[in-house]
Amino acid sequence: MAAGGETLSYDPMEEAKEFDNSKIGVKGLSESGITTIPKFFVHPPEVVSNHKSSTASAGGIPLIDLSDAKSELHRPKIVQQISDAARTWGFFQLINHGIPVSKLDETIAAYRAFFDQPTEVKMNHYRREESHGVLYASNNDLYRSKMATWHDTLQVWMSPEPAKVEDIPEVCRKEVVEWEVHANMVAETVLGLLCEGLGLEAEKLKNMGYTKTRAIVGHCYPYCPQPDLTIGLSSHSDYGMVTVLLQNEVPGLQIKHGDGWVDVIPMHGTLTINVGDTLQIVSNGEYKSVEHRVLANPLKEPRISIIEFFNAG
Ligand SMILES: O=C(O)CCC(=O)C(=O)O
Ligand SMILES: [Fe+2]
What we know:
Blueprint: H1 2-9, H2 12-22, H3 25-31, H4 45-48, H5 55-58, E1 63-65, H6 75-88, E2 91-95, H7 101-116, H8 119-122, E3 134-138, H9 142-145, E4 152-159, H10 173-197, E5 213-221, E6 233-236, E7 242-247, E8 253-257, E9 260-263, E10 271-275, H11 277-282, E11 292-294, E12 303-311
Parallel strand pairs: 1-2
Antiparallel strand pairs: 2-10, 3-4, 4-5, 5-12, 6-11, 7-10, 7-12, 8-9, 8-11
The structure holds 2-oxoglutaric acid and fe (ii) ion.
Protein backbone atom coordinates (compact mmCIF):
# COMPACT_ATOMS: atom_id res chain seq x y z
CA MET A 1 0.00 0.00 0.00
CA ALA A 2 2.86 2.31 0.77
CA ALA A 3 4.31 1.92 -2.70
CA GLY A 4 0.92 2.49 -4.37
CA GLY A 5 0.29 5.53 -2.19
CA GLU A 6 3.58 7.02 -3.25
CA THR A 7 2.68 6.68 -6.93
CA LEU A 8 -0.72 8.23 -6.42
CA SER A 9 0.66 11.21 -4.54
CA TYR A 10 3.03 12.15 -7.37
CA ASP A 11 1.83 15.36 -8.94
CA PRO A 12 3.87 16.47 -11.95
CA MET A 13 2.56 20.03 -11.67
CA GLU A 14 3.82 20.23 -8.10
CA GLU A 15 7.24 19.02 -9.13
CA ALA A 16 7.20 21.40 -12.07
CA LYS A 17 6.36 24.35 -9.83
CA GLU A 18 9.16 23.42 -7.48
CA PHE A 19 11.56 23.33 -10.41
CA ASP A 20 10.24 26.67 -11.63
CA ASN A 21 10.61 28.26 -8.22
CA SER A 22 14.21 27.04 -8.02
CA LYS A 23 14.93 29.19 -11.11
CA ILE A 24 17.83 26.98 -12.16
CA GLY A 25 16.42 26.63 -15.65
CA VAL A 26 16.62 23.63 -17.95
CA LYS A 27 20.28 24.42 -18.59
CA GLY A 28 21.01 24.35 -14.86
CA LEU A 29 19.14 21.06 -14.57
CA SER A 30 21.07 19.62 -17.51
CA GLU A 31 24.37 20.74 -16.00
CA SER A 32 23.51 19.20 -12.62
CA GLY A 33 24.47 15.91 -14.26
CA ILE A 34 21.08 14.18 -14.25
CA THR A 35 20.83 11.08 -16.44
CA THR A 36 17.04 10.81 -16.42
CA ILE A 37 14.66 13.71 -16.95
CA PRO A 38 11.96 14.67 -14.39
CA LYS A 39 8.55 13.19 -15.19
CA PHE A 40 6.96 16.54 -15.93
CA PHE A 41 9.14 16.79 -19.06
CA VAL A 42 7.99 13.41 -20.39
CA HIS A 43 5.55 13.77 -23.28
CA PRO A 44 2.95 11.20 -24.36
CA PRO A 45 4.18 8.57 -26.83
CA GLU A 46 2.10 9.98 -29.70
CA VAL A 47 4.01 13.28 -29.45
CA VAL A 48 7.47 11.81 -29.20
CA SER A 49 7.02 8.75 -31.42
CA ASN A 50 7.33 10.68 -34.68
CA HIS A 51 10.59 12.51 -34.06
CA LYS A 52 12.03 11.25 -37.31
CA SER A 53 12.22 13.60 -40.26
CA SER A 54 11.96 12.89 -43.95
CA THR A 55 14.52 15.39 -45.20
CA ALA A 56 16.07 13.07 -47.72
CA SER A 57 12.89 12.60 -49.72
CA ALA A 58 11.70 16.20 -49.40
CA GLY A 59 15.03 17.82 -50.25
CA GLY A 60 14.89 20.51 -47.58
CA ILE A 61 13.59 24.06 -47.52
CA PRO A 62 14.61 26.52 -50.27
CA LEU A 63 17.77 28.59 -49.91
CA ILE A 64 17.42 32.02 -51.49
CA ASP A 65 20.27 34.36 -52.37
CA LEU A 66 19.34 38.02 -51.90
CA SER A 67 22.53 39.54 -53.33
CA ASP A 68 20.76 40.80 -56.45
CA ALA A 69 17.45 41.74 -54.81
CA LYS A 70 17.92 45.40 -55.72
CA SER A 71 18.84 44.78 -59.34
CA GLU A 72 15.94 45.42 -61.71
CA LEU A 73 17.14 42.61 -63.91
CA HIS A 74 17.28 39.92 -61.19
CA ARG A 75 14.55 41.01 -58.78
CA PRO A 76 11.66 39.25 -60.57
CA LYS A 77 13.47 35.93 -60.28
CA ILE A 78 14.01 36.45 -56.53
CA VAL A 79 10.37 37.49 -56.06
CA GLN A 80 9.40 34.26 -57.78
CA GLN A 81 11.68 32.12 -55.60
CA ILE A 82 10.64 33.71 -52.35
CA SER A 83 6.92 33.63 -53.07
CA ASP A 84 7.09 30.02 -54.31
CA ALA A 85 8.83 29.10 -51.05
CA ALA A 86 6.19 30.96 -48.99
CA ARG A 87 3.42 29.17 -50.89
CA THR A 88 4.78 25.64 -50.73
CA TRP A 89 6.88 25.57 -47.56
CA GLY A 90 6.05 28.65 -45.51
CA PHE A 91 9.76 28.62 -44.64
CA PHE A 92 12.97 29.51 -46.46
CA GLN A 93 16.59 30.32 -45.71
CA LEU A 94 18.42 33.44 -46.88
CA ILE A 95 22.02 34.03 -47.80
CA ASN A 96 23.51 37.41 -48.72
CA HIS A 97 20.74 39.05 -46.71
CA GLY A 98 22.79 42.18 -46.03
CA ILE A 99 23.81 41.47 -42.42
CA PRO A 100 27.53 40.78 -42.01
CA VAL A 101 28.15 37.18 -40.91
CA SER A 102 30.30 38.54 -38.07
CA LYS A 103 27.19 40.28 -36.73
CA LEU A 104 25.26 36.99 -36.74
CA ASP A 105 28.11 35.30 -34.87
CA GLU A 106 28.34 38.12 -32.31
CA THR A 107 24.61 37.96 -31.64
CA ILE A 108 24.64 34.20 -31.11
CA ALA A 109 27.71 34.53 -28.88
CA ALA A 110 26.01 37.21 -26.75
CA TYR A 111 22.94 35.02 -26.12
CA ARG A 112 25.20 32.07 -25.41
CA ALA A 113 27.02 34.25 -22.87
CA PHE A 114 23.72 35.11 -21.20
CA PHE A 115 22.67 31.47 -20.88
CA ASP A 116 26.17 30.45 -19.76
CA GLN A 117 26.03 32.70 -16.72
CA PRO A 118 25.67 31.10 -13.28
CA THR A 119 22.12 30.55 -12.02
CA GLU A 120 22.57 33.24 -9.33
CA VAL A 121 23.07 35.85 -12.05
CA LYS A 122 20.40 34.65 -14.48
CA MET A 123 17.76 34.22 -11.79
CA ASN A 124 17.52 37.98 -11.29
CA HIS A 125 15.68 38.07 -14.61
CA TYR A 126 13.54 34.98 -14.00
CA ARG A 127 9.81 35.65 -14.37
CA ARG A 128 6.70 34.26 -16.02
CA GLU A 129 4.41 35.32 -18.89
CA GLU A 130 4.48 39.05 -19.44
CA SER A 131 3.50 41.02 -22.50
CA HIS A 132 6.23 43.63 -22.19
CA GLY A 133 9.68 44.13 -20.70
CA VAL A 134 12.15 41.31 -20.28
CA LEU A 135 11.32 37.73 -19.44
CA TYR A 136 13.68 34.87 -18.70
CA ALA A 137 12.14 31.50 -17.92
CA SER A 138 12.40 27.82 -18.67
CA ASN A 139 9.94 25.21 -19.97
CA ASN A 140 7.65 28.03 -20.90
CA ASP A 141 4.94 25.90 -22.45
CA LEU A 142 4.18 24.57 -19.00
CA TYR A 143 1.32 26.82 -17.99
CA ARG A 144 -0.16 27.01 -21.47
CA SER A 145 -0.23 23.32 -22.40
CA LYS A 146 0.76 21.68 -19.10
CA MET A 147 3.77 20.31 -20.93
CA ALA A 148 7.28 21.21 -19.98
CA THR A 149 9.75 21.49 -22.83
CA TRP A 150 13.51 21.20 -22.86
CA HIS A 151 14.67 24.78 -23.30
CA ASP A 152 15.17 28.14 -21.59
CA THR A 153 14.11 31.48 -23.07
CA LEU A 154 15.14 35.12 -22.81
CA GLN A 155 12.42 37.29 -24.34
CA VAL A 156 12.75 41.05 -24.87
CA TRP A 157 9.76 43.09 -26.01
CA MET A 158 10.58 45.84 -28.50
CA SER A 159 7.03 47.16 -28.97
CA PRO A 160 4.31 48.16 -28.26
CA GLU A 161 5.74 48.57 -24.75
CA PRO A 162 9.47 48.25 -25.27
CA ALA A 163 11.68 46.88 -22.55
CA LYS A 164 13.77 49.48 -20.75
CA VAL A 165 17.26 49.17 -22.14
CA GLU A 166 18.67 48.88 -18.61
CA ASP A 167 16.42 45.85 -17.98
CA ILE A 168 18.04 43.90 -20.81
CA PRO A 169 20.75 41.71 -19.25
CA GLU A 170 24.01 43.57 -19.49
CA VAL A 171 25.95 40.67 -20.97
CA CYS A 172 23.90 40.76 -24.20
CA ARG A 173 22.34 44.25 -24.09
CA LYS A 174 24.35 45.86 -26.89
CA GLU A 175 23.85 42.87 -29.21
CA VAL A 176 20.10 42.61 -28.55
CA VAL A 177 19.58 46.28 -29.33
CA GLU A 178 21.72 46.08 -32.46
CA TRP A 179 20.11 42.85 -33.63
CA GLU A 180 16.76 44.58 -33.70
CA VAL A 181 18.00 47.04 -36.34
CA HIS A 182 19.37 44.27 -38.54
CA ALA A 183 16.42 41.91 -38.19
CA ASN A 184 14.02 44.79 -38.97
CA MET A 185 15.86 45.50 -42.16
CA VAL A 186 15.64 41.88 -43.29
CA ALA A 187 11.93 41.68 -42.38
CA GLU A 188 11.26 44.80 -44.43
CA THR A 189 13.16 43.46 -47.45
CA VAL A 190 11.37 40.11 -47.25
CA LEU A 191 7.93 41.68 -46.88
CA GLY A 192 8.63 43.85 -49.94
CA LEU A 193 9.50 40.78 -52.02
CA LEU A 194 6.54 38.77 -50.69
CA CYS A 195 4.27 41.68 -51.46
CA GLU A 196 5.40 41.81 -55.08
CA GLY A 197 4.88 38.05 -55.24
CA LEU A 198 1.19 38.70 -54.58
CA GLY A 199 1.08 41.27 -57.35
CA LEU A 200 0.88 44.17 -54.89
CA GLU A 201 3.21 47.13 -54.72
CA ALA A 202 6.22 46.56 -52.46
CA GLU A 203 5.04 48.87 -49.67
CA LYS A 204 1.59 47.39 -49.16
CA LEU A 205 2.35 44.73 -46.51
CA LYS A 206 4.84 47.01 -44.81
CA ASN A 207 2.19 49.69 -44.52
CA MET A 208 -0.07 47.29 -42.65
CA GLY A 209 2.14 47.95 -39.64
CA TYR A 210 4.13 44.74 -39.36
CA THR A 211 6.33 46.27 -36.67
CA LYS A 212 3.51 47.12 -34.25
CA THR A 213 4.26 44.20 -31.96
CA ARG A 214 7.79 42.93 -31.89
CA ALA A 215 9.64 40.64 -29.57
CA ILE A 216 13.12 39.17 -29.76
CA VAL A 217 13.22 35.72 -28.25
CA GLY A 218 16.43 33.84 -27.57
CA HIS A 219 16.10 30.12 -26.87
CA CYS A 220 18.71 27.83 -25.39
CA TYR A 221 18.24 24.07 -25.87
CA PRO A 222 20.82 22.45 -23.63
CA TYR A 223 21.91 18.81 -23.76
CA CYS A 224 19.05 16.45 -22.94
CA PRO A 225 19.97 13.02 -21.53
CA GLN A 226 16.70 11.42 -22.79
CA PRO A 227 15.86 13.33 -25.98
CA ASP A 228 13.39 10.66 -27.14
CA LEU A 229 11.08 11.21 -24.18
CA THR A 230 10.55 14.94 -24.48
CA ILE A 231 10.64 17.81 -26.94
CA GLY A 232 12.65 21.04 -27.18
CA LEU A 233 9.64 23.15 -28.22
CA SER A 234 6.14 21.88 -28.97
CA SER A 235 4.62 22.04 -32.43
CA HIS A 236 3.00 25.42 -33.21
CA SER A 237 2.66 28.05 -35.92
CA ASP A 238 3.78 31.64 -35.37
CA TYR A 239 1.24 34.36 -34.88
CA GLY A 240 2.04 37.50 -36.86
CA MET A 241 3.42 38.51 -40.24
CA VAL A 242 6.93 37.11 -40.52
CA THR A 243 9.51 35.62 -38.22
CA VAL A 244 13.26 36.09 -38.64
CA LEU A 245 15.28 33.27 -37.09
CA LEU A 246 19.01 33.12 -36.45
CA GLN A 247 20.50 29.88 -35.14
CA ASN A 248 23.83 28.33 -34.29
CA GLU A 249 24.93 25.15 -35.99
CA VAL A 250 23.22 22.67 -33.67
CA PRO A 251 20.21 21.13 -35.46
CA GLY A 252 16.74 20.53 -34.01
CA LEU A 253 14.21 22.69 -35.85
CA GLN A 254 11.69 20.75 -37.94
CA ILE A 255 8.80 21.96 -40.07
CA LYS A 256 5.65 20.21 -41.16
CA HIS A 257 5.57 19.44 -44.87
CA GLY A 258 2.88 17.20 -46.29
CA ASP A 259 2.40 14.37 -43.82
CA GLY A 260 5.90 14.48 -42.45
CA TRP A 261 8.51 16.58 -40.70
CA VAL A 262 11.50 18.08 -42.48
CA ASP A 263 14.71 19.18 -40.75
CA VAL A 264 15.83 22.78 -41.16
CA ILE A 265 19.56 22.21 -41.56
CA PRO A 266 21.46 25.05 -39.87
CA MET A 267 23.86 26.73 -42.27
CA HIS A 268 26.40 29.24 -41.03
CA GLY A 269 25.70 32.77 -42.25
CA THR A 270 22.06 32.15 -43.18
CA LEU A 271 18.79 33.37 -41.69
CA THR A 272 15.57 31.38 -41.65
CA ILE A 273 12.31 33.17 -42.41
CA ASN A 274 8.79 31.91 -41.92
CA VAL A 275 5.31 33.12 -42.69
CA GLY A 276 3.08 33.81 -39.67
CA ASP A 277 -0.69 33.36 -39.22
CA THR A 278 -1.47 37.03 -39.98
CA LEU A 279 0.38 36.94 -43.30
CA GLN A 280 -1.43 33.73 -44.22
CA ILE A 281 -4.72 35.54 -43.62
CA VAL A 282 -3.86 38.81 -45.39
CA SER A 283 -2.51 36.88 -48.38
CA ASN A 284 -5.84 35.03 -48.64
CA GLY A 285 -4.14 31.78 -47.79
CA GLU A 286 -1.57 32.09 -50.61
CA TYR A 287 1.32 32.10 -48.18
CA LYS A 288 1.36 29.33 -45.59
CA SER A 289 1.90 29.65 -41.88
CA VAL A 290 3.40 26.24 -41.21
CA GLU A 291 3.68 24.25 -38.00
CA HIS A 292 7.14 23.72 -36.64
CA ARG A 293 8.80 22.28 -33.55
CA VAL A 294 12.23 21.75 -32.06
CA LEU A 295 13.52 18.35 -30.94
CA ALA A 296 15.24 18.00 -27.59
CA ASN A 297 18.97 18.37 -28.10
CA PRO A 298 20.99 15.13 -27.85
CA LEU A 299 24.34 16.95 -28.26
CA LYS A 300 26.59 18.38 -25.55
CA GLU A 301 26.74 21.72 -27.37
CA PRO A 302 23.64 23.84 -26.57
CA ARG A 303 21.43 24.87 -29.46
CA ILE A 304 20.92 28.66 -29.54
CA SER A 305 18.24 30.35 -31.63
CA ILE A 306 17.25 34.02 -31.77
CA ILE A 307 13.85 34.77 -33.18
CA GLU A 308 12.24 38.10 -33.91
CA PHE A 309 8.47 38.06 -34.32
CA PHE A 310 6.89 40.83 -36.39
CA ASN A 311 3.20 41.27 -35.73
CA ALA A 312 0.69 43.65 -37.22
CA GLY A 313 -1.52 44.13 -34.18
O1 LIG B 1 14.19 27.70 -31.72
C1 LIG B 1 13.75 27.60 -32.86
O2 LIG B 1 14.47 27.29 -33.80
C2 LIG B 1 12.30 27.85 -33.15
C3 LIG B 1 11.63 28.66 -32.12
C4 LIG B 1 10.21 28.97 -32.46
O3 LIG B 1 9.63 28.38 -33.33
C5 LIG B 1 9.49 30.01 -31.74
O4 LIG B 1 9.99 30.54 -30.74
O5 LIG B 1 8.36 30.34 -32.17
FE1 LIG C 1 7.84 29.41 -33.90
